[in-house]
Give the backbone structure.
Amino acid sequence: MKPLSPVAFLREHAVLAVSAVAAAASMVAVPPDSAYWGYFDGKTLGCLFCVLAVASALRLMGAFDRAARAVIARFGSPRSLALALVLTTAALSCVATNDMALIMMLPLSAATLVGAGRARLIPAVFVLQSLAANLCGMIVPFGNPQNLYLYSYYGLHLGDFLRITALPFTVSVVGVVAATWWLAGRPGRKKASASARATQGIVTAKASVSSAPAARAAIGAAAEPATAPVPRRPMPLSRRRLGAYGVLLALTLLAVFRVLPIAVAVAAVAATLAALDRRALAAVDWSLLATFACFFVFAGNLARIPELAAWLGPLMDDHGLVISAGASQVISNVPAAVLLSHFTDAWQLLLVGVNIGGAGTLVGSLASLITLQHFTSVRKVFPQTRDVPELSTGRFLGLFTLLNVAFLVILLVACGLCG
């Protein structure tokens, strides 16, 4: 594989670059010393590695794709199909993190909707899948990276975690289902032989995605008629590998819940994947782990600035929910969680705030940028959709902003009223 140029690397890893610059800038105020070693949360980094590695292994062997296709193939009407796509994304986010759920489901959703002659639903389904991944994964400690960090940093117990996230999770699920039911049921422009045209151009589409593996894998589904949007029979799964990965997933969960030392889980995951599928180790989002390390340095240094601690500490005590949700809109919810955790012991407000802060602006959760990136590639991957007016980027951003702001406001009000 040809190495990336410096410009291409910065473009692909912009978040890592920004976090590294922020960490370096903070070193001016707090020069490196022995206290730096205490910044790094080894449990969070270890658990995050295990979750990402096991999820990558399951994705590469087709386990997630097979499960998603089995669910989606049962539905044919616009509403039921949209609900299946969105809720499958929500379920996957609880197992494989929000980023991984979107990376797996967005290409499959685009191919399924185009193949079913429902291309006009792509913007709504993509926005709702983004909301589902960012908000519904909050119910488990490993559904979002910020949850994994806060669960480890504050030494939380699962019962306390579930008690605090139950309300915003329930509101989010009800809202996502209601919005999907409404948007998927709205009448669209009727176009002659829509399904036929959705099938045409697949050969062209195949040629145009020679450099897009995720979309190329989904093309087969788009070439089928509307009555069977996902009929392709997946490759058989290796029971030996599936069983091994199931054991690794169990070890990861035991480590997350502090039943098993994290070093044991990391060693088991690394050794097993090195023997069974080294591609899974290569596919781990190493830039995310490096980004977390930079966040630790940045937040640790800021916490040692007395003036900032004297100002931000009382602010978090009085308005923790609003501050954490608001900070997420500007710097994203993961760095907001790492930074603000140094200034408050009220983990309940911080936990809820950074999770519902995943809604709102595009940077509220960096997973939302994955959604935008996949949406802008739909017309390139499926040239037959270029005449669909609903697929304009402007309309997508308008719908994204409208729904995300609405969810953020509703969740802030609901959580604020319930204390």
In short: The chain has 21 helices and no strands. The radius of gyration is 22 Å.
